[in-house]
Amino acid sequence: MQTAIKYIQPDTIDFLLEKIGKFRDYRKANKLLSSISGIDTFFRNQEDFLTLLELLKPCFMVCEGSDRREYGDFQTPYKLTDSICSYLKTERISPDVIIEPTFGKGSFLLSALRYFNKTKKIYGVEIYEPYYWQAKFAILELFIKDPDLNKPDIFLYLDNIFKFDFKEIERSIEKCNVLVFGNPPWVTNSELGSLNSSNLPEKNNFKSLNGIDAITGKGNFDICEYIILMMLNTFSKYNGHMAILSKNSVIKNLVHDLPDMNFNISDMAALKIDAKGYFNASVEASLFKCNFRKNHNMMPFSCKVSTLRSFNSIENIFGWAGDKFVSDVSLYEKNKKYDGVSPYIWRQGIKHDCSRIMELQLLDNNKYSNGFKKELDIEKELIFALIKSSDLNSPVVTKSRKYVIIPQNRIGEDTAYLLNKFPKLYQYLTENKNLFEQRKSNIYQNKPPFSIFGIGGYSFKPYKVAISGLYKRSAFSLILPENGKPVMLDDTCYFLGFESLSEAISVWAILNSAHIQKLLASLTFLDAKRPYTKDILMRLGVDKVADDMTYDEIVNQIKSLDETMLVHVSRNAWIDFYEKFTVKSREENQPSLFAYQKGMSV
Length: 602
What we know:
By secondary structure, this protein is an alpha/beta fold. The protein folds into 3 domains: 2-55, no CATH class; 70-331, 3-Layer(aba) Sandwich (Rossmann fold); 347-600, no CATH class. It contains 26 helices and 21 strands. It has a 10-stranded mixed sheet with strand order 3-2-1-4-5-7-6-8-9-10, with helices on both faces. The termini are far apart. 39% of the residues are buried. Mean pLDDT is 87; it is low at 60-71, 192-197, 208-219 and 588-602.
């Protein structure tokens, strides 16, 4: 309450002093304030009431509240909440009951009171006490200034949303038109856990992930997603709507998981907002809106995309097309014949989490320096050129900016051999052993010293075709050896490895063809943190595209690479390549390229 007082207008302070300053019992004050504002229980007890009277004294000095990071705080400006309520009203949404699971300073509630004139009840939950009081005072001020506004019964609870019992609310809304809306925290459970926050759901694997997925990061989830699922699970069986602000990644996850959930929802829409302008947040976000009822005239498990400013202009629809999850349903339908199982296994690059020791720069004297700018005197046999996502900006990559130490040929290989075979390197790594031991990821536990991941026989293939997982561009680059040694990629990249340059060029041409590029455009969400993933790349039917491309088309594609590359792809070479794995040859029981590649791998 102490922090909230600083936001009260002087006229409201005078009003409170005049109207309730003469009372000595909080129940009388509650009765009066309820008649004015509709708030059911303004003061929870006598202590709350006496605290306010003390804080209203002129000598009181207000201090700031605590750090809000642990609550994932992005307070919504009135300009945005007004726009949302205006949009909902345009959609003819007129709720009898409004529920806000994390009401914060109350901007959504205040906009709703101004825009919806038939609402009978409002329920809100907020864990942060200064905001709880600030919202109450703001609602009171609204009705003091405009007493003719529709005045619903307002129930505000200071509580943890993850422990709140909604059963009492459910009993009162059975035959009502419900609106669940608001702006839950935009943080993940791991981010809050790192702050030792109490504002967390009970620890559980709520998506039922397998062990390795949970360990490597898929077990991390957004608090906003968790709250939306809570609300859908509780209220989607009633009449009404949901309108929740969230990151686009959360909305994508929700739509992706819907077939496995028994929610009675339809007419989903993601209306993009300017998160940078409203919240100074560098993230793509939208208003997620849906109806709490089935609509058999709409595509199931699909979501329309537009903007809040131009909500009638549908940009595209993403969701499920049959048993495939896609980013653009219409574009996918035109290119779905190439969606299959990749005949090659896509690999992720090297992961070491110790860049200052493992990643090197080549100096003019032909020696290397590490991330501490220290010149090294070590054996060069295990030093390889390294390509990062930012280097994949041209069709062919022949020169790297950095180099990397590769102490293992496969995951889990014993590194004790370094002592005898590469003593200088072993000494260098041992001197920095403490930095390796500081690596936080569980994948390094109980592994040999200086272990890396994303390493195997595939890493040492001389020719590679690669794409950045982080950038929006969908172009694939051809990676050639440097100084007679294969080039490594870091773990932000995905690649295929080849023994034959001819085969690598043919696959490069297919991956950069219009067929694959259009399919990728229909599968990828460019606003994701990592638009291109192994799951997506493993769906690229290189064999299916090869079945539809002629040699002349391949040649035209390669010309855009470099005409000198044409000597590596003759018509006979293309026929040999084609016959390994085309649909036609598979039907004739020819060996698949997957089997061919598997047989080659180390």
